[in-house]
Design goal:
Elements: H1 3-15, H2 25-28, E1 29-36, E2 41-43, H3 45-58, E3 59-72, E4 75-86, E5 95-105, E6 111-117, H4 120-123, H5 132-145
Parallel strand pairs: 1-6
Antiparallel strand pairs: 1-2, 3-4, 4-5, 5-6
Length: 146
């Protein structure tokens, strides 16, 4: 399977993610996949499924929209927009996260590494009442300095 088709298949998986669609991950990723984002660093398909399944435990209406896809050889980059309504933080107000995923494929066309890049400070920690003001202060300070 060529890289563009691999990218499209993973894009479709993200955009149709639901508890019942998690089984589709087995067709797309290698058994020993490594998944890393600002919160998780796990190996193995069952652990990756647990990360995705965990979304449905803590948020309502999780939705990925992939806006861009670029591929070369065995690597794809997906730019995506994620929206949800957290149940505990923010009292159901929508959260929006913009991020990039890097996918590395093996010779069989399965994802062996999925690295998601997004700013946990801005998109998550700033929303906590106790530490949020500290994160917002440093982000604003960094923006002024840059």
């Amino acid at each position: 399977m060529e890289t563009h088709h691999r990218c499209r298949a993973f894009k479709e998986f993200l955009e149709t993610l639901s508890p019942s669609s998690l089984s589709a991950l087995s067709r797309l990723v290698a058994p020993n996949i490594r998944f890393r984002d600002p919160i998780h660093d796990v190996r193995g398909i069952e652990n990756v499924k647990r990360v995705y399944a965990g979304l449905f435990d803590i948020v309502d209406a999780p939705r990925f929209i992939v806006t861009h896809c670029a591929c070369a050889e065995d690597v794809c980059f997906l730019r995506w927009h994620f929206t949800c309504r957290p149940r505990l933080l923010g009292k159901g107000h929508p959260w929006i996260v913009d991020a990039v995923t890097t996918l590395h494929f093996d010779a069989q066309g399965r994802v062996v590494e999925q690295f998601d890049y997004w700013d946990a400070g801005q998109y998550m920690y700033e929303r906590f009442r106790v530490i949020g003001p500290v994160f917002r202060f440093f982000r604003k300070r960094r923006m002024r300095a840059g």
